[in-house]
Specification:
about 10% strand, alpha+beta, about 350 residues
């Protein structure tokens, strides 16, 4: 609090900040602006009232992600959830069906079990062996709020449950994904965060939770029978052309396909290890033949429910165009164009 007071050039004292946090005093508008600038966050977030706390936070991040970057990602998640909850409240909508709780698997022990659970989920959700056109749409359909923002580059995404103020018994499942990553990585991150909601823990202490989530994500996005049907059940070598073709079919990275070829036994483990030491080594850092933005999976892989709700409320004149633009963080002319099909004059 002392550091924050210093950061705003002592426009407000540490004692006053403490009172703000405890709900004993409200800051003036000028102080709010200064606090928002110092904390690099919006006024909506500072005045939030829908979300009490985030629980069961699980990050998909690189090893060099700092505590500050994690806190920034949490703040972004809360701010976006606040907007989401407010528009649902304006429309008098329930948060949507929660089709996740009934499917939770706790205490799994082996990677093979994760493979089986991924297949089971595809069966329950009637997905068959086909590629998933949009992970965003699928998660939103199942009651998970999908949020996207330019979170720190060291963090691909996070999964959490948000405790809601107006209903102490209600928690909202959410996934935040970075818009800085390519679509191949985005789809895998969404599947990874879905796994966190479905699988709270792993009993086998020799299997790390993050590696387990990766295994589930790969199995869910690229089902083993579908992969075998495409490239064969047992191969000594799979060509570069085939890997790129399968990558485009399922909308995942080339390294994911290479890994899956070993996981399901199509390629022997030594062949996969040798591939990552030689021709596929660069795939771990640079995506070969990346999917183009706004085409194919990249065009479909965008969260859309929140924007639909905002435009619904605007169309029914429950909110003003300016409020819609604020909620969507878009310029007013862009919002007007989405409503009428033409830009505002």
């Amino acid at each position: 609090m002392k550091q924050l007071s210093d950061a705003v050039n002592h426009k407000v004292s540490a004692q006053a900040i403490s009172k703000y946090e405890n709900g004993k005093m409200l800051p003036s508008s000028s102080v709010l602006v200064s606090l928002g600038q110092a904390l690099d966050t919006s006024l909506d977030f500072l005045m939030s009232s829908q979300i009490v706390e985030l629980k069961d936070l699980k990050f998909r991040r690189s090893s060099d992600a700092s505590a500050k970057e994690r806190v920034k990602a949490q703040a972004t998640c809360i701010e976006k959830l606040e907007r989401y909850m407010s528009i649902e409240q304006i429309l008098d909508l329930p948060s949507g069906p929660d089709k996740i709780n009934e499917l939770c698997w706790d205490g799994l022990e082996s990677l093979e079990e994760l493979e089986d659970r991924a297949e089971e989920l595809r069966t329950v959700w009637r997905l068959g062996l086909d590629p998933i056109a949009s992970m965003c749409d699928l998660l939103e359909e199942k009651g998970i709020k999908v949020l996207e923002d330019s979170v720190p580059e060291s963090i691909s995404g996070l999964a959490c449950q948000a405790k809601v103020l107006r209903n102490e018994n209600q928690t909202v499942k959410a996934v935040l994904v970075s818009n800085r990553i390519n679509v191949e990585r985005k789809r895998f991150t969404l599947a990874h965060e879905l796994a966190h909601h479905l699988i709270p823990s792993i009993s086998n202490l020799q299997v790390s939770l993050e590696k387990a989530m990766d295994r589930f994500a790969g199995a869910f996005l690229v089902p083993r029978e579908g992969l075998r049907n495409t490239v064969g059940s047992l191969r000594r070598r799979v060509t570069h052309f085939e890997i790129m073709s399968v990558k485009r079919k399922y909308g995942v990275s080339a390294s994911c396909i290479m890994t899956r070829l070993g996981q399901v036994g199509i390629l022997p483990a030594p062949a996969v290890r040798n591939g990552f030491r030689t021709f596929a080594r660069s795939w771990l850092t640079t995506e070969p033949e990346p999917m183009q933005r706004d085409q194919g999976f990249a065009f479909l892989e965008k969260p859309s429910r929140f924007e639909r709700l905002v435009l619904h409320a605007l169309g029914e004149e429950l909110i003003s165009p300016n409020r819609a633009a604020s909620l969507l963080a878009k310029p007013l002319p862009a919002v007007e164009q989405e409503v009428s099909g033409r830009a505002a004059s």
